[in-house]
Request: fold
Amino acid sequence: MSAGTLASVRGDSQQIRPTTRAGYTTISPGTMTQLITAVAAEACNVPSKDVRASLRDEQGQLSVQLAVPLALWDPARMGNDGGTIFERAAAARALVAARIQELAGTAVRRVDIRYTGIHGQDHRKVRRVQ
Reply:
């Protein structure tokens, strides 16, 4: 994946406008996978270490496969509007596709989500004080 490199220049009105420079920018497949993993972890409310992502090119668009644990919904903390598992997956798919388009400028054709287990809402380590 690549795109032209942009630089900023100031015009007479002191506004910054992008210009195209010679050269190119590429995003390696490993970096794109890490980006997708981070975005999916945020969208699914789980730690990124628990997310597995793979991608492939489908006629110039990205196809993403995610394996994530299902985050437990805490109605006391987050209200009762969590939705069904399928509604939450649809929202996560839309968010992942939008964020990848926004961050990497890459069109996402599809996002497949496979739930691989259950993950508690509070994943931080708790230490005892004596």
Summary: The two ends are 53 Å apart (CA to CA). Residues 85-104 form the longest helix (20 residues).
